[in-house]
Amino acid sequence: MLKTNFNYNDFYNLMTSILNSALNLPTMKLNETDKFINHPYSKFRKIIWPDYNLYNNENIENLYRTDNGYLKVIKSSMKFVSIVLTMPKEISDDILLLGPFLEMQPTDKFIETLMKENNLDESLHNTIFTYYKSLPIVNSITVISTLNSILSSFLIGYNNSHICHVNFDEKKLKKIDYINRDDSEFNNEYYKQYRTYLSNISNCVSIGKFDEAKEYLKLYIQLTGFFKEHSIDQIKHNLYTLNSRLESSLLKTSIPGSHVYLLYKKIEVQIKNENNLATLEKLPYKILKKYCLLSTNYNLKSYSLTVRNAIEYINLNLNMELSLSNVSEVLDKNPSFLSNQFKKETGKTITKYIQETRIEKAINLLTTTELSIQEISETVGIHDLSWFSKLFKNIVGVSPSQYRATEFN
């Protein structure tokens, strides 16, 4: 019986939500046979054990069914861990599988050792590595402790000492003939998910939906093993790739390309200069949020025709004298009306927008041309070099010469 007024579905949803958000741990119901067979875990097992058949496996009931409310911790000879929870019959007939998960990072050496110990064919290396990089890394004691806290809070009479351990680590796989092995379906499914997550991230970013994009990014990071590398350089490479993809997403929208490029370059410098692993692990979500904010603030589709015309005029005439007065005159609008409307829709004054857009253009010229800083200053419409340098440092954080030196190095 449940201690609260929750029904079983409420309890199940709460438990799976906690496990997923706190530990990235997936949960599935073993008695929902069709879903279980189509799960990546089952497809992976079919590749490693070609004769694996859920319907005809006599051990399924014996292995997974245990006393009500007991936890069964199963360690595979393939080094991943799963936890089975049999719900008390008076609550549900469900048998829940938590995981699989790993307790250590799946390096190349780890995979090679695992394959050698289990007599696995070398041709399986990429498939195994792809799958293992998608698994969460968590200590089984942490999972058990979390489960005990949840179950003891909701299940009447739950005994947290009811834990059974099954270790197949010493029972290595027999030598299997993989000549007719076909793992194309598994790999196709992986890359289908990969493309779907990226597409969903791009779509959400292009309309500024950070919360939705964050959930897809979390799935993408879990699937690709984004941080499951010991090399800082490899993690940075993954971050550079993410930055490029998000930039490409916004370049397809009505957002001024100069704004997108400035953000891209700022993030690129941030990645390059950061060598702290803990900080790097937080960067994907910070990067995502910045692109979403840019999309929200600068997507011209959300602006009135008057403000769109003002933005487009400024972007096309950066080398000219620009001010609220002359922009209002060109657009034939009252300066006070234009100022209020521009600030209301963009959150910035026209003067601030002009300054930032000029610096964005300057950054582009610093990194793509050999023009002197004086020439760049004049090209973006600022004829006082001292003022240009001061404005640049105020917006970017470093002087123009420091920024160029950093980029070229």
From TrEMBL:
Ligase found in the keyword field: no
This protein's name: AraC family transcriptional regulator
InterPro entries, A to Z: HTH_AraC (IPR018060), HTH_AraC-typ_CS (IPR018062)
Domain HTH araC/xylS-type: 308-406
Lineage: Bacteria, Bacillati, Bacillota, Clostridia, Peptostreptococcales
Keywords from the named record: DNA-binding, Transcription, Transcription regulation
